Amino acid sequence: MSQEVASQPSANIPAGLEPENELIQARLDKLQRLREQGIDPYPPRVARTHTTAQAITAFESAADGTAPINVQLAGRIISWRLMGRSLFAHISDSTGRVQLYFKKDDLGEESYEHLKHDFDIGDFIQVSGYMFRTKTGEVSGHITAYRLVSKSLHPLPEKWHGLKDVETRYRQRYLDLIANEEVRKIFIARSRVVTAMRHFLDDRGFLEVETPILQPLYGGASARPFETYHKALDRKLFLRISDELYLKRLIVAGLDKVYEIGRDFRNEGIDTKHNPEFTMMECYQAYADYTDMMELTESMVAFIATQVLGATKITYQGQEIDLRPPWPRYTMRDIILKYSGVDIAVSTTLESLRAAMREQNLKEADAGPTWGKQVDEIFKAYVEPHLSGPAFVMDYPVELSPLAKRKPGAPLLVERFEAFVGGFELANAFSELNDPLDQRERFLDQGRQQAAGDEDAQPLDEDYIQALMVGMPPTGGLGIGVDRLVMVLTDQASIREVILFPQLRT
After folding, report:
1. Which residues are CB-contacts of 146 (< 8 A; sequence separation ≥ 6)?
2. pLDDT tens digits, 140-190
């Protein structure tokens, strides 16, 4: 590799591209020298006959190895080793990497010196030649011609140590993906997760649809929205917090099985399980209930794991987890009783519930919650840490689930479940409320909670009520956090590791 040495700044460096250090200055000088020689460092077209993986496969698949495998390759230079009259390099593309062999006798004096002195690690190069196997057994390209196709002006992260600083990795994900092969594998796996999810739902007869991201009224979840303004309409709009209410309008319209995979936005805190924008899959099925959604969930996750990983048994943060159906099913009452000693079926008021908590020496929630919210606090504090999963927890308080159908014989509960894997919620599902009068009362109650200071309560959506009045069949609905599913399948403890460009504090 040519040495990058300090020099005086070039007069022709554009404003805003002043060098940060000597290495960048050296590359800028090379850039200027190339242009002075009439070489375009950023040509508009590149000829390529094989990817790196295809070139290696073509050579290894040749019947007798006597016919040459001629190739034109292109990629980023990631290693560079000068050995007298020869030079070895590796280039990478999205399919892998391959070694290149440059020989002075083949290229000629001038071309070889140009390669030595004007190219750097990080540059993109196009090469022509033929494939062969070196004495050490590595399939490589014997290069007879080359061309610079993009000059890199910023050095890559140091080869052997990669890119370790977490903030830099997230803010400059392009460097992270170049330097860390394991990170690239995570995002390839993420793409395959989404592909497998689509295949599963499509094969079950679901129709993929698109619903508004900009909404005149937000709803479908308990969360604070992001607000924006549309100048032409002269009105405030919200980034959706959920796809639910629009997807259920389509059930009303007679589309019996619909789903959407897309971005949702919630104006909430940032931690290892939450990012303000995240990817959700929501699906709705007419003539189904939450028990049907349990079967759909466990079958879908097992199918995706098999497609992406080749097995349903995974390791997440040191825990062995088998995603094979059926998953255990627990009622919220039973599992709270098991881990806290409190029976929410007996303590059905806030006062009696808090008295039961004191008897068990449990810490109370913040002042002012309702019975349902106190139940939720007990669950989060004393149950969730035990749910390595997979597991379904069923039958939630009605006030926590304003869009779910009441459970027959249990007026304080609704037919809702959450799926847990690895100690956190992965999915949420209901038997959907289709009684427009009950739904309107639930929205009004949410309005009262909002007036009392609950910023996460949902507003009244009269248009959605009108849709329900047209008539919606019994319906099961399901939402799966795609980011969290990828976390589980790739063994990542933080959601930022599975989102290409996560939101960060400044």
Report:
1. 102, 107, 111, 115, 125, 126, 127, 128
2. 999 999 999 999 999 887 754 556 778 888 999 998 998 888 999 999 999
Tell me which CATH homologous superfamily contains domain 22-156: Nucleic acid-binding proteins (2.40.50.140)
Rounded to an integer, what distance in angstroms lies between the CA atom of residue 479 and that of residue 117? 56
CB neighbour list of residue 360: distance below 8 Å, 6 or more residues apart: 340, 341, 342
477: β partners:
284, 430
At 369, is the pLDDT very low, low, confident or very high (cuts 50, 70, 90)?
confident
Non-local CB neighbours of 326 within 8 Å, separated by 6+ positions: 298
Q: How far is CA 159 from CA 79, 86, 117, in A?
A: 8, 21, 20
State the pTM of this model: 0.90
Tokens of 327: 């998953």
CATH number for the 179-328+389-498 domain, one of 3.30.930.10, 3.20.20.60, 3.20.20.70, 3.30.300.20?
3.30.930.10
Give the three-class secondary structure for 452. coil
Are 305 and 312 contacting, i.e. CB atoms less than 8 angstroms apart?
Answer: yes
**Tokens found for residue 119:** 């190219």
pLDDT for the residue numbered 5: 33
Each domain of the chain, given as residue ranges in start order, spans 22-156, 179-328+389-498
